[in-house]
Amino acid sequence: MKRKMKKQKFKNRNGRKLHKTTPGRKSGRLLFEYITLGGILLSAAVLLISLSAYFLPRIPEPEKEIMDAVPPLSQAGNPETASQEETDVAHTTGADPVPMEPESIPFLVSSNELGDISDLTMEDSCNEDTSVYLVMLDTSMGPMLYYNQGDARWASYLYGGEDPMGTYGCGPTAVSMLINSFSCDSLGVTPVNLADWAFANGEYAPKGGSYHSLIPNALSGFGLQVESIRDYSRENAADLLATKHILVALMGKGSLTENGHFILITKLLDNGNVHIADPNSYENSTKEWNLEQLLSELKDSRDHGAPLWAVSLPAQGCERRYPPSTGSLPEA
């Protein structure tokens, strides 16, 4: 037989009956309280972490790499006061834009080395380049932002949807330097913008870069003066450079590829040599070049004003309505 257990009863000081709590019930209640408290603390921690991640500033890693690589800019703004040390080029493996004001970009300082025409070649394609180029050039028309077709921001961009800019984009890159820095009507132009414009306007040549008509059509279309030059003498070219012109030169087989290559002859120096802006080579753009030798290497082509054009500011003059681009890609 099972013996019935009597429930023990107790009285407090006021005479009220109290029931004795068994150890099992007490430990269960404590466990429930601990679980509840732990859940509250865990929820608070998760909420705090979420709020911190949302409100604290964060720099995306590729963009941070670019910003960390930008060279000092304290000497920017005037080629006469630029540092005598050659300007470094920012390097990155990303393709994000570099957010900088045009007036804060340093001017390139010439190496004073005389360029060799054999170095002016497209054989060493900069399609694999991982550099971001941020430098201003002192030209006969005024300060001009340098663009390189192998820049990490657009080297792999497909010109015409087929051909990478790093290999086939010398035309849009050369033209975009002029339009971006000197056009009164542009809202900041990059090589990508010009490549898209060229494709939309029939100036893209599949596997051949650009048709020669890109030069007069794009430059005049964006408000600059451009004329074909038929006098290829050194004297005539020097006179044009001395009167605030930049020359667009289509270089030929003697020094480049079969399809030719566009460069800009930007300034006549006191010693009679010239500076160039080579969209395929930053190094070539730091050197001095023999003007007569460059003219002797022009491509033997006469369509659409080739192989030499003179570019100048609009005759009536204008004030730029927009600042030049620093190379930021357009938002998608």
Report a brief summary of the structure.
With 332 residues, this protein is α+β, with helices and mostly antiparallel strands. The protein has a domain at 133-310: Cathepsin B, Chain A.
Question: How would you characterize this protein structure?
Answer:
With 332 residues, this protein is α+β, with helices and mostly antiparallel strands. It has a domain at 133-310: Alpha-Beta Complex (Cathepsin B, Chain A). Helix content is 29%, strand content 16%. It contains nine helices and 15 strands. It has a five-stranded antiparallel β-sheet with strand order 11-15-12-13-14. Strands 1-2 form a two-stranded antiparallel ribbon. Helix 4 crosses helix 5 (191-200) and helix 4 packs parallel to helix 6. It is elongated and about 105 Å long. Residues 75-84 have a biased composition (Polar residues). This is Peptidase C39-like domain-containing protein.
Please supply descriptive tags for the structure shown above.
single chain; 332 residues; alpha+beta; Cathepsin B, Chain A; two-stranded antiparallel ribbon; 9 helices; 15 strands; 16% strand; Peptidase_C39-like; transmembrane; transmembrane helix; Peptidase C39-like domain-containing protein; membrane
